[in-house]
Design a protein that fits this description.
Blueprint lengths: L1 H25 L2 H11 L21 E5 L12 H4 L2 H16 L3 E6 L9 H11 L7 E4 L5 H12 L4 E7 L3 H10 L5 E5 L19 H22 L4
Parallel strand pairs: 1-2, 1-4, 2-3, 4-5
Helix pairs in contact: 2-8
Length: 235
């Protein structure tokens, strides 16, 4: 009898915990606050023209795009095969490239599960969007952020002006990793999930939604990535 009562109490508290946890991750307050704590650490480059004429001694301006995945569907153009984050990143690189004279786009990432390296895939997509191949440098190495940082440092060292392009939520970890290998890039975050809107929220915006669960998943992955990097002695 006591055994049965004990199991019922455990089941009850598991249910209570699960209910409140689900409410916590599916409503806006906690997921948005945690997401903002990551995305707002570095400012978006709104006026890239300010970086014209910042290099000396013949060094280059590198717009370094980190890999974020693609599909392998030959029915589609390269741009249509890019994952959402990848499309944001390469688009941001092109925006900066068009505004900063003499800049080069640097692409990193190996093949992963695809047929060609992510860096080459990015290159094809950039060319579809009007970028001349001569303005693209490909480093077909790196299956994670740390490997991409090491690959860039091995190829170019620290002599060039170096912009780092990745998702705003990923930027804190990326900057930590790049600094750990001796690089000091200028952060160029993109793909903001949280954007300021000038409309008044409706009561339904505070109801539980899978939208906020997605935010919670993104935040959890970001913080776990930072923790794992620190465990490995990075940052």
């Amino acid at each position: 009898m006591l055994y049965t009562v004990g199991l019922e109490a455990i089941a009850y508290w598991i249910f209570v915990f699960s209910f409140f946890y689900l409410v916590l991750i599916s409503t806006p307050w906690v997921p948005e606050a945690l997401l903002a704590s990551l995305e707002n650490q570095y400012q978006h480059i709104l006026q890239p023209q300010q970086y014209n004429n910042i290099v000396k001694n013949g060094n280059e301006i590198h717009l370094h795009v980190l890999g974020a995945g693609d599909s392998n569907d030959s029915r589609l153009s390269y741009t249509s095969q890019l994952h959402v984050s990848s499309l944001y990143r390469i688009t941001e690189a092109i925006r900066l490239h068009n505004a900063i004279s003499g800049s080069k786009i640097v692409l990193t990432g190996n093949s992963g599960t695809g047929t060609i390296p992510q860096a080459e895939f990015y290159s094809h997509a950039a060319q579809e969007l009007g970028i001349d191949k001569s303005n693209i440098n490909i480093i077909a190495e790196g299956w994670n952020t740390h490997h991409e940082a090491v690959a860039y440092h091995k190829q170019f060292g620290t002599k060039h002006k170096h912009f780092l392009i990745t998702d705003a939520v990923h930027m804190p970890r990326a900057m930590m990793i790049f600094k750990s290998v001796g690089l000091s890039p200028i952060p160029a975050p993109t793909h903001y999930r949280l954007r300021q809107n000038n409309y008044k929220r409706q009561i339904t915006d505070y109801f539980p939604s899978s939208h906020y669960i997605t935010y919670s998943e993104i935040v959890l992955q970001a913080y776990m990535g930072v923790l794992w990097a620190k465990i490995r002695g990075i940052g």
